[in-house]
Amino acid sequence: MPVLFAVTTLLFMQFLGEAFVRLTGLPVPGALVGLLLLFAVLCLNRGAPKSLRDTTSHILQHLMLLFIPVVAGIMLHFERIANEWVPFLAASLGGTVITILVTAITFRWMLQRAEASKPPEAKRSAS
User: Which chain regions cross the lipid bilayer (predicted)?
Assistant: First the structure.
């Protein structure tokens, strides 16, 4: 039953995102809006319920299976990608670079916060 709750929650948030995009005409994917709504709800609740954590953990372990429809879609529109490969490549490389930079900056910030929160005697013994 906890898995059903978690999957229902995920699909409901995606549905809300899709409905919001259709009603407002925003030029963003509804799934992204649904993800942001889920993030907001989780922040307000100060965390995810155990059933949601467990279910999403299992989904993430099999994440590669979720890319199969994307690859099939790319192959379906291969001619268009062949005609417009420069913007496609630029967006892919730019997105990768931005992701790596944001991850590195966030990791460095988290390490600094963790170091600052250590008690003084722990800092001395680590040196």
Answer: 27-47, 59-78, 90-111
Chain mean pLDDT for the chain: 87
Task: Say yes or no: 43 and 94 in one domain.
Answer: no
pTM strictly above 0.70: no
- Give the integer Cα–Cα distance in Å for 39 and 121: 37
3-state secondary structure the chain: CHHHHHHHHHHHHHHHHHHHHHHHCCCCCHHHHHHHHHHHHHHHCCCCCHHHHHHHHHHHHCHHHHHHHHHHHHHHCHHHHHHCHHHHHHHHHHHHHHHHHHHHHHHHHHHHHHHHHCCHHHHHHHC
Domain end point (choices 42, 61, 80) = 61
Last residue of a domain, one of 30, 61, 92: 61
Residue 44 lies in domain: 1-61
CB 25 within 8 A of CB 11: no
How high is the pLDDT of residue 63?
81
Which single residue is written with the structure tokens 């809006």? 33
